[in-house]
Design a protein that fits this description.
By secondary structure, this protein is of the alpha/beta class. The strands form four sheets. The chain has a nine-stranded mixed sheet, with helices on both faces. Strand 5, helix 3 and strand 6 form a beta-alpha-beta unit. Helix 2 packs parallel to helix 3. The longest helix has 18 residues. The two termini are 26 Å apart. The relative contact order is 0.11. Bound molecules: S-adenosylmethionine and iron/sulfur cluster. The site of S-adenosylmethionine has 16 residues, from strand 4, strand 6 and strand 7.
């Protein structure tokens, strides 16, 4: 059963210096053509299941005009949405207007994820963002006034020359927004972005680690639960959609560059608009063996701070998790912790989680 949907909207009004996601500049004709193809892809593939989580990501879905949104509404209508669906839309602070927010509300959106990235002008400039913190404050007030209460913000840290003092200022500012969810990302520099072309360097690994620890301590002290490597939530307002990924459950991925996981197949859509319009969508299909499925379950499941429930794992994959790979050794070495019910990564080693997960590939 596939009860989750990701829809990719690959358009932005401005291209940031660090971003290598699938996206192009907003263009009304291209958006209309794209929405027609999206409709076709969904009609041809959706099997009519009840949808519990729907995530419209990008790119910047907020770049769509009201006319475009009217078209998107007809696409959303195809899905049978559960009455307690989590329906998220990603927005860029620059784009959102009262009318767009009212439209989101009307089509059933109940969670807003907003790219704040930094609250300090010089870093916003470095990231080629067009907003300042004042605009973010105003837009979040508008989002709340319209009645959205489940709000997540993205923060990027580790920009060139950034100090722990700057990070503290960013975190303080985020807390002042009184939102319930925060995603934090250490800046990644990709070759095909402005930062990559300029040959910019990341901060050194020592400071990166200090920043990670600082974020975790700071947010935990201020009422946020660290529930996934990069994610923090107040009052258990976890991202249900992202938990579908981390719990290794099925989801449809629709749109250019989207990926999905249905039955035992993981697939990746083309990033080429031309091929997408020609319905040559899937560029990569991985048919999973039992071992592959288990490997994914471990790699994704250990991203959760709580870890993997051992009984659930046995019931789903019919194998004792402790018997897999070198898990017993990792427990002996203190990298993994078996608390009886859950098996999880020792918090001391979360920062080097990727090197632990390599054991399960
Ligand atoms: C699709 S964007 C969010 C919505 C909207 N497009 C925006 O930028 O406001 C997804 C998020 O991924 C993160 N991200 C993207 N590229 C990144 C990079 N190179 N390094 C770190 N974080 C990155 C940013 O925090 C960004 O907000
Ligand atoms: S970070 Fe967001 S707004 Fe910036 S280019 Fe990427 S998707 Fe577009």
């Amino acid at each position: 059963m596939t009860n989750s949907v990701y829809i990719h909207i690959p358009f932005c009004n401005n291209i940031c210096s660090y971003c290598d996601f699938s996206k192009v500049y907003y263009n009304n004709d291209l958006v209309n053509k794209y929405l027609d193809s999206l409709l076709l892809e969904i009609k041809n593939n959706y099997q009519g299941e009840i949808i519990n989580t729907l995530y419209i990501g990008g790119g910047s879905p907020s770049s769509l005009s009201i006319d475009n949104l009217n078209k998107l509404r007809n696409i959303i209508k195809i899905f049978k949405l559960s009455s307690d669906i989590e329906f998220t839309i990603e927005v860029n602070p620059d784009d959102i207007t009262k009318d767009k927010l009212l439209f989101y509300k009307e089509i059933g959106v109940n969670r807003i994820s907003i790219g704040v990235e930094s609250t300090i002008d010089k870093y916003l400039k470095y990231l080629n963002r067009r907003h300042d913190f004042k605009l973010v404050q105003d837009k979040i007030k508008l989002i709340k006034d319209i009645g959205f209460s489940n709000i997540s913000v993205d923060l990027i840290y580790g920009m060139k020359d950034e100090t722990l003092h700057d990070l503290e200022k960013d975190l303080n500012n985020l807390l002042s927004l009184d939102i319930n969810h925060i995603s934090t990302y250490s800046l990644e520099i990709h070759d095909n972005t402005m930062l990559g072309i300029n040959n910019d360097k990341r901060i050194d690994d020592d400071l990166d680690r200090k920043m990670y620890d600082y974020i975790v301590n700071y947010l935990e002290k201020n009422g946020f639960e660290h529930y996934e490597i990069s994610n923090f939530a107040k009052n258990k307002t976890y991202s249900k959609h992202n938990l579908v990924y981390w719990n290794n459950l099925n989801y449809y991925g629709f749109g250019v560059g989207a990926s999905g996981y249905i039955d035992n197949i993981r697939y990746q859509n083309t990033k080429s608009f031309n091929n997408y319009f020609l319905e040559k969508r899937i560029i990569n299909k991985e048919i999973l063996s039992n071992e592959d499925t288990i490997s994914y379950a471990l790699i994704l499941g250990f991203r959760k701070i709580k870890g993997i429930n051992k009984n659930d794992f046995y019931n789903r994959y019919h194998v004792d998790i402790l018997s897999l790979y070198n898990i017993k050794d990792l427990i002996k070495e203190g990298l993994l912790i078996d608390d009886g019910e859950y098996l999880k990564i020792n918090k001391e080693y979360l920062y080097v989680e990727n090197s632990i997960l390599e054991n399960f590939v």
